[in-house]
Every structure is written in structure tokens, then in C-alpha cells.
Design brief:
The complex is a heterodimer of chains A (263) and B (110). Chain A is an alpha/beta fold and 263 residues long. Chain A is built from ten helices and ten strands. Chain B has one domain: STAS domain (Transcription Regulator spoIIAA, 2-Layer Sandwich), CATH 3.30.750. Classes of the chains: A alpha/beta (263), B alpha/beta (110).
Chain lengths: 263, 110
């Protein structure tokens, strides 16, 4: 693959939940080594879009190409080689509580490779070192703070040396100091391993720090795409509203409100 | 990935080429384990033709280092391409391994 070619290419993606269209004609190209942030309000479709890109959901129509391969018509078995080179950091860390941190990180290596356990143990320690958790391999998730759990989950996400790392709300539920620590860590890993990173978030501070480009989603559509500076300079009302953190105007239908109160 | 072994009187040379990754590392490990013995405890690894190495490749070489240390032997790596050097530096393992620019330097004192 040449450097300028897209590593992820989404074309005319549409999907429905029942009769409701949740993704409405999404077109998006992500370059190798790029950090693309998918930004938007709660319920705008960003997590749904992420689920489609990683192949956990199938679209109603449109294509998603990862390294030139259309994944929308692949079976679970056919998806496996692609998934092996993709890391996923889930919103709630999603560590297995009954396993040690080391075993959580080692899990994908034990599941998907023929490596000897002695090699896997060294790799696990290397990954824990990279996320600042050296010496924590024998701890259980319940013994870790929220930020440490995220770090452990990140170590597991990069266990297989992925080309692409997906992060769903990486700083959700963390205090601002810990959240900025996770952002720094993601930046460090990106620089170190030249990974392509796709991050779903609604945290503007995170976006400012880590995004090369931002796709702003609203009602299942990308309403703006560009660098943070380009989007901040946009005159589009919805883009301005998001970046300036302006709440929706309050809409009250007098009659229905009164009816809801008096029954 | 391909590997070639050259046996000298006091040491073995393992020449690796291609990608040393999750799928080929077990083969490298197996070869290294067979080469490092009590009677032949010194190993030189030529990485000139290695185009890609992931964490499993590095971890395999850490195991090789562990084994040569245990046998009071020596492990030397040489002729690393820049991309491979980066992998060692990022894991901070460039400080742990004996890494040489070329074959001549690696052979010195063996």
C-alpha cells in the first residue's frame, strides 16, 4: 500500500434502526498514520459508525474498505485476519475481572497466535511498560483505578501490534487530569508505532490535543470535516454551536407542557 | 521470513530476512533454542535483511538474550535497518542488547 492511499474508505454508508435512519450517506477517507476524531453529540450516530467500521454491525447499504478490502460483505471468518491487525479500546475498558491484568493483555495473543507462553509473557510486560503499568501484571482489574484500567485496556488493544487503533470515548468517566494522561498516552503510541487512530468522542479538549482531522457528525451525517482549526473557523451554525458549546434553545409547547403537568 | 545458519568454531550466526512477526517468530524462537547450547553459547544475529519486526520478534530476541546470559554466553545483533532500530528504541531495548553497526564490528573479540 502506498503512503497516500486511504487505509479506511467509507462510501455512501447508510443504516437503519427500525425505520429510523441512523447513518445517512457517510463518506470518509482516513489516511495511514492519521488520527481521525469522530465528534458529535450524544445519539448522533458516532458509536454506531464505529461499530460499522470495526465490522460489529452491517450497514443497510454502502461500503467500508479497510486496506482496500470491503468488509461489509465479509463473513466472521473472513474478518479475522483484518481484526487481528486492528486494536479496540472499549468505552468501559471491558477488562475481564476474573483475570489478572497480564492475562487480559495476553488474551488476544493466546487466542490468535501460536506464540509460546514465554514469548507472550515478555510481550505482555513490554506492552504494560509502554502504557506505564510495569509491575502490575499480577493485579486484578478491581485493584486498579479508572485511569489504570484504561491503560491496561490500551495495552490489550495494542497487544497484537495493530495498524489501526479504534478508541470509543477513551476519556469518558475519568477525571480531567487522568483523561489528559490517556490522551498523552494515545499520542505517544501514535508517534511511536505510526498507527492509524480513529477516536470517537464528544470531548473538545481531547480533540484539540490529539486529532489530525475531525469529522463532525449530526443526525447520522458528517456535517463538517477538516482540521480542528478549520472547523473552529466554520460559519456553519451547527458546527459553531458545537465548538462554542452553545446549548439548544429551549422549546416549550405551552399546551403539551401544561397537559403533561395536569394529566 | 527466511533464516540461515552459519556455524563457526566459537559462535553461530543466524541470518534473518523478511518479516519477523506474530506468525514467523515461533520459527525463529525454535531455531534460536536449537543454536544456543552449553557447548555453543554465543549467537550473532544478522538483521540486515529484516524488513519488519513486531513485538513478538523483539520478545523472541529477549528470550535469546535470557538464554545466552543463563549459559554465560554472548548475544550480538548487527546491521539493523533504521525501522528495526526504531522498534528496539521504542521498547527501550536498545540499551539492553549489544547492537553493532555491521558484521565486522559484531565479530570483534568473539
Amino acid at each position: 500500500m502506498t503512503e497516500h492511499k486511504s487505509i479506511i474508505e467509507i462510501e455512501n454508508l447508510e443504516t437503519y434502526y427500525g425505520s429510523r435512519k441512523v447513518l445517512d450517506g457517510i463518506n470518509l477517507s482516513i489516511k495511514p498514520g492519521e488520527t481521525m476524531t469522530i465528534l458529535g453529540r450524544s445519539g448522533c450516530g458516532k458509536s454506531t459508525l464505529l461499530r460499522h467500521i470495526i465490522g460489529l454491525s452491517k450497514p443497510s447499504s454502502g461500503t467500508i474498505k479497510i486496506k482496500s478490502r470491503n468488509i461489509t460483505d465479509l463473513s466472521e471468518d473472513e474478518m479475522l485476519p483484518i481484526r487481528r491487525k486492528v486494536g479496540m479500546l472499549f468505552q468501559g475498558a471491558a477488562l475481564f475481572n476474573s483475570m489478572t491484568v497480564g492475562d487480559n493483555v495476553a488474551l488476544p495473543l493466546r487466542e490468535h497466535t501460536e506464540l509460546e507462553d514465554s514469548t507472550i509473557k515478555i510481550m505482555t510486560r513490554m506492552k504494560l511498560d509502554q502504557v506505564g503499568l510495569s509491575g502490575f501484571e499480577d493485579f486484578f482489574p478491581a485493584q486498579l483505578s479508572g485511569g489504570m484500567k484504561k491503560r491496561a485496556a490500551l495495552a490489550r488493544a495494542i497487544a497484537m501490534d495493530p495498524d489501526i487503533l479504534f478508541c470509543d470515548e477513551p476519556s469518558a468517566g475519568l477525571d480531567p487530569i487522568v483523561a489528559v494522561g490517556i490522551d498523552h498516552l494515545i499520542l505517544k503510541l501514535k508517534k511511536a508505532f505510526n498507527m492509524t487512530i480513529v477516536i470517537v468522542t464528544h470531548e473538545l479538549e481531547s480533540v484539540n490535543m490529539i486529532a489530525d482531522r475531525v469529522a463532525l457528525l449530526d443526525s447520522g451525517k458528517i456535517i463538517a470535516l477538516g482540521t480542528v482549526d478549520e472547523l473552529m473557523a466554520s460559519d456553519t451554525p451547527k458546527v459553531k454551536q458545537f465548538f462554542n458549546r452553545i446549548p439548544d434553545p429551549e422549546k416549550i409547547d405551552k399546551e403539551s407542557y401544561l397537559k403533561s403537568l395536569i394529566g | 521470513m527466511e533464516l540461515e545458519v552459519i556455524k563457526k568454531e566459537k559462535f553461530s550466526i543466524l541470518k534473518l530476512s523478511g518479516d519477523v512477526d506474530l506468525y514467523s517468530s515461533p520459527q525463529v524462537r525454535k531455531k534460536i533454542l536449537s543454536l544456543i547450547t552449553k557447548s555453543n553459547k554465543n549467537l550473532l544475529v544478522d538483521l540486515a535483511e529484516v524488513t519488519y519486526m513486531d513485538s513478538s520478534g523483539v520478545a523472541t530476541l529477549v528470550e535469546a538474550l535470557q538464554l545466552t546470559n543463563k549459559n554465560s554466553g554472548t548475544l550480538r545483533l548487527y546491521s539493523l535497518r533504521d525501522a528495526i532500530k526504531d522498534v528496539f528504541e521504542l521498547s527501550r531495548l536498545d540499551k539492553v542488547f549489544n547492537i553493532y553497526e555491521n558484521e565486522e564490528q559484531a565479530f570483534e573479540g568473539m
